[in-house]
Amino acid sequence: MDTVTGLPNRQLFCDRLLQALAAHERDGNPVVLLFLDVDNFKSINDSLGHLVGDRLLRATAERIRTAVRDGDTVARIGGDKFTILLNGAKDTLNGALVAQKILDGLAQPFVFGAQQIVISVSIGIAVSPADGETMEQLLRNADTAMYHAKSRGKNNYQFFSPELEHHHHHH
C-alpha cells in the first residue's frame, strides 16, 4: 500500500492489471486504464511544503475514489501520479465518463484551514487490446496520452492513439 494515500501502490496495481488482462482473454471485455498526473504539483509542494502536498495527495485520492465504482482500482504509483483500472468496462466510453467525473470532482477547491488550493489534472486513457496487450504497453501508452493531455493545456483527458506515440518519440 501507498503510505501517504492508503491506496494500492504500483506493485499491487500491476498485479490487478495483469489479472484484468488475463480476464480479458476469457471474457473479451476491454481493459480500460487511466493514467492521471496532478498538474503543477511540484510548485504546490515547493511553495506550501510537503505536509500540505501530502494532505493534497490524500484529498485528491479521496475525490478520485468517489468518481469510480467500488470494483475499480485506484492506485498511486509514485509522486503525483495515479492510475485507475476500470473493472468490467464494457467499452471505451466508460473511460471518458470516469475521466470527466474525476475532472469535475477535482475542479472544486480543496480547503485546508484558511488555505484554498485549486488543482487540475491531466488524464491519459489506454484501452486493451487496441492500445496494447501487455501491462507495459498499456501503462506506456496511457502515460503517453497523459503527456498529450498536458500539452493540450492540461485539465483534460486524451485517449491514446498511434499518432501520439510517433509524436511523443520525436519531440
Fold topology:
Layout: H1 10-27, E1 31-38, H2 41-48, H3 50-67, E2 73-78, E3 81-86, H4 93-107, E4 110-112, E5 115-117, E6 121-128, H5 135-151, E7 157-159, H6 162-169
Parallel strand pairs: 6-7
Antiparallel strand pairs: 1-3, 1-6, 2-3, 4-5
Helix pairs in contact: 2-3, 3-4
**Level-1 CATH class name:** Alpha Beta
- Overall average residue pLDDT: 91
Describe the biggest sheet? 5 strands, mixed
Distance between the termini: 35 Å
Number of helices: 6
What Rg, in angstroms, do the CA atoms define? 16 Å
Briefly note the structural class of the backbone: alpha+beta
CATH architecture grouping = 2-Layer Sandwich
* Backbone shape: globular
User: What's the CATH topology label?
Assistant: Alpha-Beta Plaits
CATH superfamily: Reverse transcriptase/Diguanylate cyclase domain
Provide an overview of this structure.
It contains 6 helices and 7 strands; from the N terminus they run αβααββαβββαβα. It has about 170 residues and is α+β, with helices and mostly antiparallel strands. It is about 50% helix and about 20% strand. It has one domain: Reverse transcriptase/Diguanylate cyclase domain (Alpha-Beta Plaits, 2-Layer Sandwich), CATH 3.30.70. Helix 2 crosses helix 3 and helix 3 packs across helix 4.
